[in-house]
Amino acid sequence: MRFLTALFFYGVIIPISHLPFRLLYVLSDGLYIVMYKLIGYRKKVVFQNVANSFPDKTTDEHLQIVSDFYQHFCDLVVESLKVFTISQEEVNERMKVINPEFIDRFYEQGKNVIMAGGHYNNWELFAVAIDGPLKHKVVAIYKPLTSLFFDKKMRDSRSKYGLEMISTKKVEEEFKRENAPLRAIIFGFDQSPGSAKNSYWGTFLNQDTAMLFGAEKYAKEYNFPVVYARINKTSRGHYTTEFVEAIEEPLKTNYGEITKRMNGLLEKDIITQPEYWLWSHKRWKHKRPADLVQQ
Q1: pLDDT tens digits, 241-253
Q2: Strand (E) positions, 48-109?
Protein backbone atom coordinates (compact mmCIF):
# COMPACT_ATOMS: atom_id res chain seq x y z
CA MET A 1 0.00 0.00 0.00
CA ARG A 2 2.80 2.42 0.87
CA PHE A 3 4.39 1.68 -2.52
CA LEU A 4 1.16 2.53 -4.35
CA THR A 5 0.74 5.69 -2.29
CA ALA A 6 4.27 6.81 -3.12
CA LEU A 7 3.75 5.91 -6.78
CA PHE A 8 0.61 8.06 -6.91
CA PHE A 9 2.37 10.94 -5.18
CA TYR A 10 5.50 10.97 -7.34
CA GLY A 11 3.81 9.83 -10.54
CA VAL A 12 0.69 12.01 -10.47
CA ILE A 13 0.70 14.73 -7.82
CA ILE A 14 4.26 16.00 -8.26
CA PRO A 15 4.08 16.20 -12.08
CA ILE A 16 0.82 18.18 -11.77
CA SER A 17 2.41 20.38 -9.11
CA HIS A 18 5.21 21.35 -11.51
CA LEU A 19 2.74 22.66 -14.11
CA PRO A 20 2.63 26.46 -14.53
CA PHE A 21 -0.44 28.15 -13.09
CA ARG A 22 -1.98 28.84 -16.49
CA LEU A 23 -2.13 25.10 -17.19
CA LEU A 24 -3.29 24.33 -13.66
CA TYR A 25 -6.31 26.55 -14.23
CA VAL A 26 -7.10 24.74 -17.48
CA LEU A 27 -7.08 21.58 -15.36
CA SER A 28 -9.27 23.32 -12.78
CA ASP A 29 -11.85 24.27 -15.43
CA GLY A 30 -12.08 20.64 -16.49
CA LEU A 31 -12.24 19.48 -12.89
CA TYR A 32 -15.18 21.84 -12.31
CA ILE A 33 -17.17 20.10 -15.06
CA VAL A 34 -16.38 16.69 -13.59
CA MET A 35 -16.96 17.51 -9.91
CA TYR A 36 -20.00 19.75 -10.30
CA LYS A 37 -21.70 18.81 -13.56
CA LEU A 38 -20.93 15.08 -13.83
CA ILE A 39 -20.41 13.43 -10.43
CA GLY A 40 -21.82 16.18 -8.19
CA TYR A 41 -19.21 15.82 -5.44
CA ARG A 42 -21.05 16.39 -2.13
CA LYS A 43 -23.58 18.45 -4.08
CA LYS A 44 -26.47 17.71 -1.72
CA VAL A 45 -24.39 18.76 1.28
CA VAL A 46 -23.24 21.95 -0.42
CA PHE A 47 -26.70 22.98 -1.60
CA GLN A 48 -28.32 22.21 1.77
CA ASN A 49 -25.65 24.20 3.62
CA VAL A 50 -26.08 27.17 1.31
CA ALA A 51 -29.90 27.06 1.39
CA ASN A 52 -30.00 26.87 5.21
CA SER A 53 -27.44 29.66 5.56
CA PHE A 54 -29.27 32.05 3.22
CA PRO A 55 -33.00 31.42 3.72
CA ASP A 56 -33.91 34.82 2.26
CA LYS A 57 -32.23 34.10 -1.08
CA THR A 58 -34.01 32.46 -4.02
CA THR A 59 -33.24 29.00 -5.35
CA ASP A 60 -31.54 30.57 -8.37
CA GLU A 61 -29.32 32.60 -6.05
CA HIS A 62 -28.48 29.46 -4.07
CA LEU A 63 -27.54 27.66 -7.28
CA GLN A 64 -25.31 30.55 -8.35
CA ILE A 65 -23.45 30.44 -5.03
CA VAL A 66 -23.06 26.67 -5.36
CA SER A 67 -21.71 26.95 -8.92
CA ASP A 68 -19.29 29.73 -7.94
CA PHE A 69 -18.17 27.66 -4.95
CA TYR A 70 -17.26 24.67 -7.12
CA GLN A 71 -15.27 26.90 -9.47
CA HIS A 72 -13.31 28.29 -6.54
CA PHE A 73 -13.01 24.86 -4.90
CA CYS A 74 -11.44 23.37 -8.03
CA ASP A 75 -8.98 26.28 -8.13
CA LEU A 76 -8.19 25.54 -4.48
CA VAL A 77 -7.50 21.88 -5.31
CA VAL A 78 -4.93 22.67 -8.00
CA GLU A 79 -3.42 25.53 -5.98
CA SER A 80 -3.00 23.14 -3.04
CA LEU A 81 -1.20 20.65 -5.30
CA LYS A 82 1.06 23.48 -6.46
CA VAL A 83 2.12 24.10 -2.86
CA PHE A 84 4.23 20.90 -2.95
CA THR A 85 6.70 22.51 -5.38
CA ILE A 86 6.01 26.25 -5.26
CA SER A 87 8.99 28.59 -4.83
CA GLN A 88 9.17 31.11 -2.01
CA GLU A 89 9.26 33.92 -4.56
CA GLU A 90 5.97 32.75 -6.04
CA VAL A 91 4.46 32.29 -2.56
CA ASN A 92 5.29 35.88 -1.71
CA GLU A 93 3.78 37.06 -4.97
CA ARG A 94 0.53 35.15 -4.57
CA MET A 95 -0.13 35.64 -0.84
CA LYS A 96 0.69 39.13 0.39
CA VAL A 97 0.43 40.04 4.08
CA ILE A 98 -0.64 43.66 3.96
CA ASN A 99 -0.37 44.68 7.64
CA PRO A 100 2.15 42.50 9.54
CA GLU A 101 2.69 45.37 11.97
CA PHE A 102 -0.74 44.59 13.43
CA ILE A 103 0.75 41.43 14.99
CA ASP A 104 4.36 42.61 15.25
CA ARG A 105 3.34 45.01 18.03
CA PHE A 106 2.63 42.03 20.28
CA TYR A 107 6.14 40.75 19.54
CA GLU A 108 7.54 44.07 20.74
CA GLN A 109 5.47 43.64 23.91
CA GLY A 110 6.94 40.15 24.44
CA LYS A 111 3.61 38.38 23.89
CA ASN A 112 2.65 35.21 22.09
CA VAL A 113 -0.49 35.56 19.99
CA ILE A 114 -3.23 33.33 18.58
CA MET A 115 -4.17 33.83 14.91
CA ALA A 116 -7.75 32.67 14.37
CA GLY A 117 -9.10 31.92 10.90
CA GLY A 118 -11.54 29.80 8.95
CA HIS A 119 -11.53 27.64 5.84
CA TYR A 120 -12.05 30.66 3.63
CA ASN A 121 -10.18 31.37 0.40
CA ASN A 122 -6.76 29.65 0.27
CA TRP A 123 -5.73 28.68 3.79
CA GLU A 124 -3.05 26.30 2.44
CA LEU A 125 -1.18 29.13 0.73
CA PHE A 126 -1.64 31.24 3.86
CA ALA A 127 0.06 28.53 5.94
CA VAL A 128 3.06 28.38 3.61
CA ALA A 129 3.42 32.16 3.35
CA ILE A 130 2.73 33.50 6.82
CA ASP A 131 5.96 32.82 8.73
CA GLY A 132 8.16 35.05 6.55
CA PRO A 133 6.46 38.43 7.03
CA LEU A 134 6.00 38.14 10.82
CA LYS A 135 8.47 38.58 13.66
CA HIS A 136 6.86 35.76 15.65
CA LYS A 137 7.66 32.13 14.96
CA VAL A 138 4.46 30.85 13.35
CA VAL A 139 3.06 27.56 14.61
CA ALA A 140 0.06 25.67 13.18
CA ILE A 141 -2.01 23.15 15.13
CA TYR A 142 -3.05 20.27 12.88
CA LYS A 143 -4.74 16.87 13.08
CA PRO A 144 -2.42 14.13 11.74
CA LEU A 145 -3.57 12.33 8.60
CA THR A 146 -4.32 8.62 8.63
CA SER A 147 -1.69 7.98 5.94
CA LEU A 148 1.75 8.39 7.50
CA PHE A 149 3.21 8.97 4.03
CA PHE A 150 0.86 11.84 3.14
CA ASP A 151 1.03 13.21 6.68
CA LYS A 152 4.79 13.66 6.31
CA LYS A 153 4.47 15.13 2.81
CA MET A 154 1.83 17.58 4.01
CA ARG A 155 3.97 18.65 6.97
CA ASP A 156 7.06 19.03 4.79
CA SER A 157 5.13 21.06 2.25
CA ARG A 158 3.54 23.47 4.70
CA SER A 159 6.67 23.94 6.81
CA LYS A 160 9.27 24.42 4.07
CA TYR A 161 9.26 28.23 4.41
CA GLY A 162 9.30 28.47 8.19
CA LEU A 163 5.94 27.32 9.56
CA GLU A 164 6.18 24.86 12.46
CA MET A 165 3.54 22.10 12.52
CA ILE A 166 2.32 20.83 15.90
CA SER A 167 0.00 17.83 16.26
CA THR A 168 -3.25 18.29 18.19
CA LYS A 169 -1.89 15.58 20.49
CA LYS A 170 0.99 17.86 21.54
CA VAL A 171 -0.81 21.18 22.00
CA GLU A 172 -0.46 21.30 25.78
CA GLU A 173 3.21 20.40 25.52
CA GLU A 174 3.77 23.19 22.97
CA PHE A 175 2.06 25.84 25.09
CA LYS A 176 4.08 24.89 28.15
CA ARG A 177 7.42 24.71 26.34
CA GLU A 178 10.02 26.82 28.13
CA ASN A 179 12.58 29.04 26.42
CA ALA A 180 10.58 28.90 23.17
CA PRO A 181 10.65 31.87 20.77
CA LEU A 182 7.63 34.14 20.76
CA ARG A 183 4.98 32.36 18.70
CA ALA A 184 1.96 33.22 16.58
CA ILE A 185 -0.22 30.14 16.78
CA ILE A 186 -2.73 29.40 14.00
CA PHE A 187 -6.12 28.08 15.10
CA GLY A 188 -8.80 27.09 12.60
CA PHE A 189 -12.14 27.46 14.36
CA ASP A 190 -14.86 26.66 11.82
CA GLN A 191 -14.69 22.86 11.75
CA SER A 192 -17.46 20.76 13.26
CA PRO A 193 -16.39 19.85 16.83
CA GLY A 194 -15.92 16.23 17.79
CA SER A 195 -18.32 16.52 20.72
CA ALA A 196 -21.61 18.39 20.89
CA LYS A 197 -21.47 18.60 24.69
CA ASN A 198 -17.94 20.05 24.81
CA SER A 199 -18.71 22.78 22.30
CA TYR A 200 -19.83 26.37 22.61
CA TRP A 201 -23.28 26.74 21.07
CA GLY A 202 -24.39 29.84 19.22
CA THR A 203 -25.91 31.08 15.97
CA PHE A 204 -23.80 31.01 12.82
CA LEU A 205 -25.23 31.66 9.35
CA ASN A 206 -28.81 31.49 10.64
CA GLN A 207 -28.31 28.07 12.24
CA ASP A 208 -27.86 26.69 15.73
CA THR A 209 -24.17 25.78 15.64
CA ALA A 210 -21.65 23.88 17.74
CA MET A 211 -18.45 25.94 17.79
CA LEU A 212 -14.88 24.91 18.56
CA PHE A 213 -13.75 26.45 21.83
CA GLY A 214 -10.00 25.74 21.63
CA ALA A 215 -8.79 29.21 20.65
CA GLU A 216 -10.70 30.83 23.51
CA LYS A 217 -9.67 28.13 26.00
CA TYR A 218 -5.95 28.58 25.35
CA ALA A 219 -6.20 32.36 25.01
CA LYS A 220 -7.61 32.59 28.52
CA GLU A 221 -5.44 29.87 30.04
CA TYR A 222 -2.20 31.49 28.83
CA ASN A 223 -3.40 35.09 28.38
CA PHE A 224 -2.55 35.20 24.65
CA PRO A 225 -4.16 37.97 22.55
CA VAL A 226 -6.37 36.67 19.72
CA VAL A 227 -6.21 38.17 16.22
CA TYR A 228 -8.57 37.42 13.34
CA ALA A 229 -6.82 36.73 10.03
CA ARG A 230 -8.90 37.60 6.97
CA ILE A 231 -7.87 36.12 3.62
CA ASN A 232 -9.09 38.05 0.58
CA LYS A 233 -9.01 36.86 -3.02
CA THR A 234 -7.85 39.67 -5.27
CA SER A 235 -7.76 37.70 -8.54
CA ARG A 236 -7.48 34.10 -9.65
CA GLY A 237 -4.55 32.61 -7.74
CA HIS A 238 -3.74 35.81 -5.86
CA TYR A 239 -4.65 36.56 -2.26
CA THR A 240 -3.96 38.93 0.61
CA THR A 241 -3.98 38.38 4.35
CA GLU A 242 -5.22 41.20 6.55
CA PHE A 243 -5.34 41.21 10.35
CA VAL A 244 -8.51 43.06 11.21
CA GLU A 245 -9.33 42.73 14.91
CA ALA A 246 -7.57 41.80 18.11
CA ILE A 247 -8.83 40.76 21.51
CA GLU A 248 -5.91 42.10 23.49
CA GLU A 249 -6.97 41.16 27.01
CA PRO A 250 -8.67 37.77 26.85
CA LEU A 251 -8.85 37.43 30.65
CA LYS A 252 -11.27 40.37 30.72
CA THR A 253 -13.75 38.76 28.31
CA ASN A 254 -16.90 36.89 29.26
CA TYR A 255 -17.35 33.18 28.59
CA GLY A 256 -17.89 32.62 24.86
CA GLU A 257 -17.14 36.22 23.88
CA ILE A 258 -13.94 35.40 21.95
CA THR A 259 -15.58 32.47 20.18
CA LYS A 260 -18.62 34.55 19.19
CA ARG A 261 -16.52 37.47 17.95
CA MET A 262 -14.27 35.28 15.80
CA ASN A 263 -17.23 33.43 14.31
CA GLY A 264 -19.01 36.73 13.73
CA LEU A 265 -16.07 38.10 11.74
CA LEU A 266 -15.92 34.97 9.58
CA GLU A 267 -19.68 35.10 9.09
CA LYS A 268 -19.43 38.65 7.72
CA ASP A 269 -16.76 37.53 5.25
CA ILE A 270 -18.91 34.61 4.10
CA ILE A 271 -21.99 36.80 3.66
CA THR A 272 -19.94 39.25 1.57
CA GLN A 273 -18.46 36.57 -0.74
CA PRO A 274 -20.05 33.20 0.10
CA GLU A 275 -18.43 31.25 -2.73
CA TYR A 276 -15.05 31.30 -1.00
CA TRP A 277 -16.02 29.27 2.08
CA LEU A 278 -15.73 25.47 2.31
CA TRP A 279 -19.40 24.57 1.85
CA SER A 280 -18.64 20.88 1.20
CA HIS A 281 -17.79 20.37 4.86
CA LYS A 282 -20.54 18.80 7.02
CA ARG A 283 -20.50 21.76 9.38
CA TRP A 284 -23.87 21.20 11.05
CA LYS A 285 -23.87 17.48 11.79
CA HIS A 286 -24.41 18.00 15.55
CA LYS A 287 -27.68 18.88 17.27
CA ARG A 288 -27.70 20.78 20.54
CA PRO A 289 -28.08 18.39 23.49
CA ALA A 290 -31.41 18.90 25.26
CA ASP A 291 -29.75 19.60 28.60
CA LEU A 292 -27.67 22.54 27.30
CA VAL A 293 -29.25 25.93 27.87
CA GLN A 294 -29.15 28.70 25.26
CA GLN A 295 -25.78 30.44 25.18
Answers
A1: 999 988 999 999 9
A2: 95-97
